[in-house]
Design brief:
The chain is mainly alpha-helical and 165 residues long. 65% of the residues lie in helices and 0% in strands. The chain has 2 domains: 69 residues, lambda repressor-like DNA-binding domains (434 Repressor (Amino-terminal Domain), Orthogonal Bundle), CATH 1.10.260.40; 68 residues, 434 Repressor (Amino-terminal Domain) (Orthogonal Bundle). The chain contains 10 helices and no strands.
């Protein structure tokens, strides 16, 4: 039972968006939305991105509210149009800030193999894992944590990292 489903339910109710309307906007079945909002299943990392895109087509303010609540911060802004895949973003940040997969795994209290799967995009981190990645990076280097979210939410295809100096 994850945070993403709870936040999605709050946003749908607050903005009067039906599960069916979001499902149509996302091109998926309403049963998936229902499972997420009833917390029977947490949406994965890519699904978080698709939820945001679907909400954006219905109500851009709701999309930004979803991301803002999900991240517990005000990262959401009207300039966000698309998001990056979590594994690629994580790899870029680890390389740019010279953080080893093992160091992040220790900070997060998980196995290094999990980080390896994410970084090599053989497995996508689940919705709540995005928050845990940010927390782990924040323990090591707060700037890297902020950069991870920035790159993850970056609208460009390039996902260029901001100069860290």
């Amino acid at each position: 039972m994850g945070k993403a489903g709870t936040v999605l339910k709050q946003v749908l109710e607050a903005y009067g968006i039906s599960q069916n309307k979001l499902a149509v906007a996302m091109g998926i079945g309403r049963s998936s939305i229902n499972r997420w909002v009833n917390e029977n299943r947490d949406p994965g990392g890519d699904a978080i991105l698709e939820i945001r895109k679907g909400l954006n087509t219905i109500n851009p303010v709701a999309a930004e509210e979803f991301i803002g609540l999900y991240l517990d911060e005000s990262f959401a802004s009207g300039t966000i149009e698309t998001m990056r895949k979590a594994g690629k973003s994580l790899r870029q940040v680890l390389e740019a800030y010279n953080i080893s997969q093992n160091k992040l795994a220790i900070a997060m209290g998980i196995g290094r193999s999990t980080i390896h799967h994410w970084v090599n995009e053989s497995r996508d981190p689940g919705g709540d894992a995005i928050l845990e990645i940010r927390k782990g990076l924040n323990k090591i280097n707060p700037a890297a944590a902020e950069e991870f979210i920035r790159v993850y939410l970056d609208e460009s295809d390039e996902g260029e990292l901001v100069d860290q100096e």
